[in-house]
Batch of 3 targets.
Target 1
Amino acid sequence: MARESWTGRIGFVLAAVGSAVGLGNIWRFPWMTAENGGSAFLVVYLGIVLAVGVPGLLAEFVLGRRSRKSPVGALRDLSGSRNWGRVGLVSVLAGLVLLSFYSVVGGWILRYLVASPTGAYFADPGGYFDAIAHGPGAAAFHVLFLGLTAGVVYGGVRAGIERATTVMMPVVVLVLAGMAMWASGLGGAADAYAFYLEFDVASVQENALDVALAAAGQALFTLSVGAGTMITYASYVGEDRSLPADATMIAVLNTAVGVLAGLVVLPLLFSTPGVDAATSGPGALFVGVATAFATLPAGELLAAGFFAVVALAALSSSISMLEIVVAYLVDERGFARDRATVGVAAVVLVTGTASAFSPQLFGLLAGPVVDVVLTTGLLAFVVFTAWVLGPDAVEEFARGTRFSAGLGDAWRTLLGVALPPFLVFTLFVGVSDAVGVTVASWQLALAAVAVAGVVVAGVVRARRPRPTA
Ligand code: PHE
């Protein structure tokens, strides 16, 4: 059977934007910004999106389109080495880890969607969230969300993923824009904007390491980079697309939606007495926003609209997580799509239920584990692109674009030389944080440069001459 493909540019871009725009933008981004110094965090985050996120996204696009395979097959075929194929398995792991907590949060969203029209959580938003966050109810809604996700992936690349995302994404953007306009009329809007935009350099300097780590984690997560999703999606793309142009467009749209979400969520929080926007943390969306809706006229309706949009955004991301694993089974294990979809969903049914019952497991997967997996994945993809694919990567980069070849070379240098130490450094900071040792940042930086050097040197030495196709 011929490999499926997107119908055209719009299909590919909207599917990729659908993957990028999700709970990362609406749930994580506003409170991460608020907690890490407002607009100063924004500046660090935007810098990392530009310098790491977009080049990394492009590396995944190049690997996917060049190989027309999902990550395992891509790394194996492009290098001619089975070991590289094994490295690609990191993406299968990423897909399973991501889905195992994302589907639980997706379940919470569906729960709030169903509860909104009657205002079921209006009397006691905090207590309601505590009651539904973990346990049998959380598991049931996780299964529902997973079922919706699997239903779309089951339909295939065109009839499932593309058809769903081309409807969902415009709806998400339009409704959020409308809500941001409406929120500008709320009493606390001015305070919210000030908070968002006040340039708190001091707090960034104080916690430079933590802010950089949070910003890096958020930049990868929100762009769906490091999981191999974008390799998989780009394996269905046509020859005539400009990959650099598409990557830029996706990053711009994704960031715009993050800012829009902030323009909805923060004014709501600032207009509600008793809600502290800066410290409400991951509960901001569920407790803070829910409290805000409870105090507003027609809050039931507004809340239902809001959570419906969040559900669409979450779903268009979760399908891209499931697709990584399904594409692996189809490409590499000879499964039919329908069986692969049902099989992977059955696995996540179990792992997700475990994290629906255990707050500890959930916190672990959603925090340190996913950060480490995405960073490791991206490290493998950028080293591979720069040092194994090498000049061919630059050629693929330039295909169908009007960008100069010089830009492609600069991109390759960035991937091969600057990003590995940065990513290893992030891994070190993350791990030393997780195990609770404090090491001076210059020591970590030195160690990161050394380890990255060894990794790159090892890859360059091991590279075998590829058969000329
Ligand atoms: N980018 C998605 C979000 O912001 C999450 C995601 C990460 C999706 C990695 C796929 C792969 O919600």
Target 2
Amino acid sequence: MFWRLIGTYGVLTVAAITLLGFVLERRVERHEQQLIEKTLQTRLVRVDIDLRGIRDPAQLQKRIDEMIEVEPGLRITLLREDGEVLADTAEEADRLVNHATRQEIVQARTQAFGSHIRRSSSIDKEMIYVAKHRENPEGPVAFVRVALALDQVAEPLADLRRLVTTSAALAAGLTLILTAWFSRRIARPIQEVAQAAERIAAGDYGQKVYASGQSEVVRLARSFNNMSERLEEQITKLEDDQEQLRAILSGMVEGVVALDAEQRILFVNERARQLLEFATPSPVGRKLWDVVRQRSLLDVVQRALTEREPQRVELNWHGLTQRSLTVHAARLPGEIPRGAVLVIHDTTDLRRLERLRSEFVANVSHELKTPLTVIKTCMETLLEGGAAEDPNHRRTFLEQVSDQANRLHYLIVDMLSLARIEAGTEVFDFREVALAEAVELVCDRQRARAESRNQTLAIEGSDDVVVWADEEAVFQILDNLIDNALKYTPVQGRIQVRWWAEGQHGCVEVRDTGIGIPAQDLPRIFERFYRVDKARSREMGGTGLGLSIVKHLVQAMHGSISAVSQVNEGTTFTVRLPQPVETPTPSV
Ligand code: ADP
């Protein structure tokens, strides 16, 4: 802008000054010539007077030669009426051609004087000619002509030209400097505004420009600063809002995906990435069908884009992990479809719980039904079949009824116990429990059973391992694990109970050389009613709730349990319970 201003105004000014100088010079030159003409006319008059009475051409020649002696540079020519040269101070008269057609002579014939400027062919110089027609010639001379070489007057003219040129150059220079100064004054704030605007466009908000005074440019700078400040505030607010929104969306347990009308992904939160397992790490900007292959999801998006009502679909997601997903798809508001938002809930746990609940109801019904059916059948046989009268049969039936009633009793006791632990209503009496004492006590209770089956029940561990737990619960845990080890280990097998301290925990391990648990069943053995071999477990009097109770008890006491097993080689259960936290003894 600065250079454009300088260019425009500078060129205009220089052109104006040059034109002015040129016109001025021409006018002055013309004026000078007129002055010379006037002087020459006066000279002519004097020459005319001087020549009066002289008729002889030689005399005339002599006279004019004398005249130019005092005025070198001047040329005098005398002509007859017909234009023939009578005498001349520059050339010999008879060598000169007829001058009748010379412009100054033609002019002098009609007017008093005639003048002309031209290059003289005889002396090869720019000359000014002034001629006079003598009104009453007393001799042969009809025309007197004087001429002066212009270079005689060129010097003052050249001086004048130099003066004009120098003044014009000075004026032009000064004007240029002033133009530059003004241009700079105008262009600088505008340039600053332009640069600041460019920086803002590049994302560097809050730019300011500094300008003082009252001009429009200063007003522009002020408005620009206001705008820049407001823009920075707005952008910061927008960024904060966006950041907040992003944080909220990232922290959501639901997956969120925003799509445009062409199903191009505009936004996707972290959870959605996990749930939908996109085919690319950067799905934003890609079409949904490029990064997600599941047909049912694409269908629901299509429906959401075409229909006004929000769509909901439950999917079984077959990706790297099997999941149950519930997808809500809603169209963005507006007449023409602008896009859709998908909210994806992971309902895997919910579905699993639902399945577990219905399985549990089915299992409980089944567990209750089996002993009840036996009891009912026995009682009917006793009452209606007449078995009550037969003491042998009666005893068998009554024993069966008693067994089944016991089974029902244990089942209900286990279920209630499990329900209490799960509901958190079981009250634990936390205290220091020595693992050695607990293991010994439980093993003493089970030893007779082990011996009856020729099984070895060995224990190993130091006396000083103590855990922070409920004693009854520890007994129940050990009882269940040792009971299972005895149940699922053939006669003459070996059951070993070991305990030790490890880090912050006391550990106890029940290892047997029994039938083992197949790898596919191992992760499920802590589920309620889950049994590897249902018939065998029932036959052994198990309820299928033992390990479930053990796991819940261990967890309620902030511990953990794990199992490793090899089919036909044996199983090892390891329980970890926290050790008591050392409390500093208060100083007396
Ligand atoms: P149950 O009353 O049937 O023993 P549990 O909950 O105690 O129920 O155990 C669940 C299942 O885990 C059992 O049915 C059995 O199949 C398996 N199991 C538990 N302990 C052992 C073990 N020591 N060896 C082999 N299988 C075991």
Target 3
Amino acid sequence: MNKLFTVILLLSITSVQLISQKKAMNFKLIDLPYAIDALAPVISEETIRFHHGKHLQAYVNNLNNLIVGTPFEQADLETIVKESEGVLFNNAGQVLNHNMYFMSFKPNGEGKPSGDLAKAIDEEWGSFENFQKAFITASTSLFGSGWAWLAKDKHGKLVITKEPNGSNPLAHGLIPILGFDVWEHAYYLDYQNRRPDHLNALWSILNWEEIGSRY
Ligand code: MN
């Protein structure tokens, strides 16, 4: 009788697990770590309201819909970006890209990185100013919609990559550290066609403590 009870108990636990495994992971819109108007005038309240509240929310909703019925229903975001393709890859990439992007800012940035990341930037580009020039060149020369990323390889060497659409350095085996969004929705309300002006202004609101922790 005891054995039968144990078997029934195990079967019922297993069936509960099976049912719960059928439910897809539900990704959520991140909360901003600052007030919606805190980055103005570099990024206006209106741009944040649309970029975070509308664009990122849409990518989150699309991702939640697209993973249903795929092998990625229980996968974390990084795994989906590394292993998926096509429209699922681009939506998952956009959620990861924007989560990292919005966490990269604070109202009064430190201006420069410090510690290990600062050393690695100096080793690769000679100075922070040279890195800034190279990063802006990559960001402004990217044709169409996409991202410029500072990333590191598995040996800790820094690289700048240009990612089309929703791609992320994770897709090439790199660790993403800092991404500038060069989709027009990131700057058009505030800067219209002046992409370089927007990108140059971003340096003053970077949270290098957070960005450095990714290195
Ligand atoms: Mn964006």
